[in-house]
Amino acid sequence: MTNRPDPSRSALLTIDVQNDFTLPGSPHAIPGTHELVPAMAEIAAAFRARRLPVVHVVRLYLPDGSNAELSRRDALAGGARIVLPGSPGSGLRPELAPCPVELDHAALLRGAFQPVGEAEWLMYKPRWGAFFGTGLTGHLRGLGVDTVVVIGANFPNCPRTTLYEASERDFHAVVVPDAVSRAYPRGMDECAEMGALVLGARELIGWLPPSP
């Protein structure tokens, strides 16, 4: 492992870019996320073109809220339906996928990585961060990854937690503020102080190695 983020050994993590959280008109849409989907899709396409790994990280909330954070369990148990397994709202935004994708909800909930491309997968996370209670660390190590690039929704919760978890597991981290909803300058400064590289979407694509 080098002492700096290595673009040739990087993987992209897209966080919670799902219909319920992003589509205009969804009661659970996170403000500002839909507008950033084109930048997220461009970054995913750049990783795909370079045959670098992409992992689309999704949430799936059971109706009783038993697999959700404590702060959301009452709402789910009270009838809220957010990224419900099997529902259209749980689906990945199609702009980010290499082809039409239907989530294998049962396999994802079991912790499986669902292949959706040559070096591209879906995975489920049970809490804010993508590393907690998942096989992501081993999956990335097995691919020779030492650097993770984080985009998606929404910075104060899941992307920020994922960045901290990546650092705790000795992965280098890159965050892309114009491809992460609800990013703000102080938060980006704090990520940089933690050792993360902060790059705009165009900067990031230029930072990646050339396409083969």
TrEMBL record:
Keywords, ordered alphabetically: Hydrolase
Top-rank taxon: Bacteria
Keyword Metal-binding in annotation: no
One MF term in the entry's GO annotations: hydrolase activity
Gene3D superfamilies on file: Isochorismatase-like
Occurrences of domain Isochorismatase-like (ranges): 10-186
Protein name (record): Cysteine hydrolase
